[in-house]
Amino acid sequence: MRQKWIIGVAAMAFWLFAAQLVFTAGITPALEAADASVAAPTLEAKTNEDGSVTLTWSATEAPRGFTIQSADLISGVNTYTAGASDRSFTTGQLPKSNTYNFRVRQDNATGYSAWSPIKTVTIP
């Protein structure tokens, strides 16, 4: 029994490492190269009582829109878009005890900004 438990933990650790590697290394499909002249948005994440997460961010320059990504071990990497005037995004209700990584980037006339620093949230 103990051997199966150790194998299960090792497999989970591998998948956690692989998901984090895919997300943080930017192996997700790139829409365009980052425009170094545009600063990355500042991202904040807050869990809500209903199990959803609200993201808020700042913008620089004149955005045309935003790309938001979330990553977790259950559904992998998901990509969402927000309009030029949007500065927040709320997920649907997420499963308890799961950990999610979020990031956002700005779309402007010269391309995309760099990704924001990743915010990690665990649903209570």
Largest sheet report: 5 strands, antiparallel
End-to-end distance: 30 Å
Annotated CATH architecture: Sandwich
Percentage of residues in DSSP E strands: 35-45%
Share in helix: 10-25%
Description of the molecule:
This protein is of the alpha+beta class. It has a single domain, classed as Immunoglobulin-like. Helices cover 19% and strands 36% of the residues. The strands form two sheets. Strands 3, 4, 6, 7 and 8 form a five-stranded antiparallel sheet that branches. Strands 1-2-5 form a three-stranded antiparallel sheet, with no helix packed on it. The longest helix is centred in the N-terminal third of the chain and has 23 residues, at 2-24. The protein starts with a helix and ends with a strand.
What is this structure's SSE topology?
Blueprint: H1 2-24, E1 43-47, E2 53-57, E3 65-72, E4 76-83, E5 88-90, E6 99-108, E7 111-112, E8 119-122
Antiparallel strand pairs: 1-2, 2-5, 3-4, 3-6, 6-7, 6-8
